[in-house]
Amino acid sequence: MSAVESRLRELGLKLPEVVPPLAAYQPAVRSGAYVYTAGQLPMVEGGLPLTGKVGAEVTAEEAKDLARTCALNALAAVKSVVGDLDRVARVVKVVGFVASATDFTGQPGVLNGASELLGEVFGDKGVHARSAVGVAVLPLDAPVEVEIQVELTDG
Question: How far is CA 76 from the centre of its chain?
């Protein structure tokens, strides 16, 4: 077991199976020393635990937990391409989308769920640039979607 997966276990987490694509794309692709994930929904065992807009049907705290799930799904997608998460030299960028009620402005706090998980798992290598974007609707009426970019070590 990799050190990253051991760290996930210490946190009480398990890397999920890769979420199958919902359309014509791959969950992750590698280009040179980088892996880019597709947007990852907070799917758990084939379904969304919650749907709707953050600030209406979904609370900010619930959405933050869902963003954490999205990040786990993104790590599974990265692993599917590189085989071993210990090859991650650093998390470079996180982009998150929050399906928001018209008056909801807490997108950065929601995306902290993903950012904090990556920091807990990778330490300093998990510190990244980030965008947190409010949108009208996401696929399957998901409250949040996250994509990540990671840089790999040589080898």
Answer: 9
The tokens for 59 are 């609370």
Q: How confident is the model at residue 155 (pLDDT cuts 50, 70, 90)?
A: low
Q: What does the alpha-carbon distance between residue 100 and residue 41 come to, in Å, rounded to a whole number?
A: 15
Residue 109: partners with Cβ closer than 8 Å, 6 or more residues away: 60, 64
**And the tokens for 93?**
């960028």
Query: Quick check: pTM over 0.85?
Result: yes
Please report which confidence band the pLDDT of residue 67 belongs to, taking 50, 70 and 90 as the band edges: very high
- Of 74, 72, 64, 67, the C-alpha closest to 38 is 74
d(CA 141, CA 46): 14
Q: Quick one: the chain helix, strand, coil %, rounded to 5?
A: 35, 25, 35
Burial (CB count <10 Å: 0-12, 13-18, 19+), residue 57: middle
